[in-house]
Amino acid sequence: MEATIGFLAARLQGELLGDPNLVIQDAQALRKAESNCISFLGDDTRVRELERTKAGAILVAKKKLTEVPEAQRAAFNFIVVDDVLEAFVSVLKQFRPERTRATIGLSDRAIIASTAQIGSNTNVYPGASIGEHVVIGSNCDIHPGVVISERVVIGDGTTIYPNAVVYPDVVVGHRVIIHASAVIGADGFGYRFKGGRFHKIPQLGSVRIDDDVEIGACATIDRGMIGPTVIGEGTKIDNLVMVAHNCEIGKHNVFASQVGFSGSSTTGDYVRCAGQVGIANQVHLGDGCTLGAKSGVHRDIPAGETHVGYPARPHDEAFKIVMAEQKLPEMRTKLRDLEKQVAKLVATLEAKTANPQAEAA
Q1: What distance in Å separates the CA atoms of residue 1 and residue 81, rounded to the nearest whole number?
Q2: Rounded-to-integer distance, Cα 97 and Cα 177, Å
Q3: Would you say residue 99 has pLDDT above 90?
Q4: 245 is an active site residue
Q5: Exposure string (b/e) for 233-255, b if CB count within 10 Å is 16 or more?
Q6: What does the alpha-carbon distance between residue 103 and residue 98 come to, in Å, rounded to a whole number?
Q7: DSSP states of 135-150 as a string?
Q8: Is the distance from CB of 10 to CB of 81 less than 8 angstroms?
């Protein structure tokens, strides 16, 4: 598939600065783009990246274009658009069309309980297992190896990828995506120590996943002890994230890989956690707060604040500590010099105190 940049500019309703007849055959990242490729200069991309690219055409926002030196402007064909990423995704789909959804219906090689209710236009692939009294909506895709246990309820348009496991009584909303090998609704890690042994505390709650949630591969969400563990509407969870029992996650949160929530922790809406953030039990993350990578959170985080470090501190405070740590070798040397000077002064003072006549003379 190929197209001229004049055609692409018109399709994107962008302003073309360059040769409209140049033919484009692919879309690539700046560093990998060749002369027959279109790429994009993102809001966070450094302008100097243009020195390394061979891209034939580049999508750019008007504000970002003002940062490009005149000489480089003349060297490239630009398409000026309002939303660079959205435009690039649109072009990418043109060169790499999305796969059409299969229509296989209910495979005779799937295990489907007689009491299960499955909506229209839903695909259940070979090797999937659907338990008793399960309810699955319309237009869902249940891939090979998926296990959906008894009394699970799944909304319309939901996709569950291979080998994911959904334990009993879990409720999954509409348009949810659960990636491969995720485990939803396993027992929470609850024990009490008595008589020299750990005794399991029954985990009799469930999990509720609201609409438009995406859960990454190998992520785990434990069931509550009494009520449900909740994942709020629109929340996006990366691979290898752990959400423990009784947690209540708000709407439109975003958690990167290896984030871990301890039991009964909660979040507001629009919370962001970078990779490997750890949250202690019963901690609350306020609306719109952000946690930097590897932050260790042991207390509530106020709404709208950015915290980093271990233990997590406000960004400005943590930055000052890091800057001070960089100066520790120099400060250590100065401290040793000061100790030597003080020792000399003390020795001199003690000598004078011990022999005042010599000082008077």
Answers
A1: 22
A2: 20
A3: no
A4: yes
A5: bbbbbbbbbbbbbbbbbbbbbbb
A6: 15
A7: EE-SS-EE-TT-EE-T
A8: no
* Residue 193 neighbours by CB distance under 10 Å: 8
pLDDT value at residue 350: 85
Give the neighbor-by-neighbor strand order of the sheet with 266-267.
Answer: 117-118, 135-136, 153-154, 171-172, 206-209, 228-231, 248-249, 266-267, 284-285
**What confidence score (pLDDT) does residue 73 get?**
86
Report the pLDDT value the prediction gives residue 358, as an integer from 0 to 100. Answer: 59
Taking the C-alpha atoms of residue 185 and residue 167, their distance in angstroms, rounded to an integer, is: 5
* Count of all residues that appear for the chain in the document: 361
pLDDT in tens, 266-279: 999 999 999 999 99
192 forms beta bridges with: 199
Q: Quick one: pLDDT band at residue 71, thresholds 50, 70, 90?
A: confident
Token pair 């490997």 in the structure block, residue: 276
Q: Residue 328: enclosing H or E segment and its boundaries?
A: helix 328-354
Candidate list 143, 174, 179, 245, residue with the active-site label? 245
Query: To which H or E segment does residue 17 belong?
Result: strand 15-17
**Pairwise CA distance, residues 181 & 220, whole Å:** 9
Q: Which of 263, 255, 308 is nearest to 283 (CA)?
A: 263
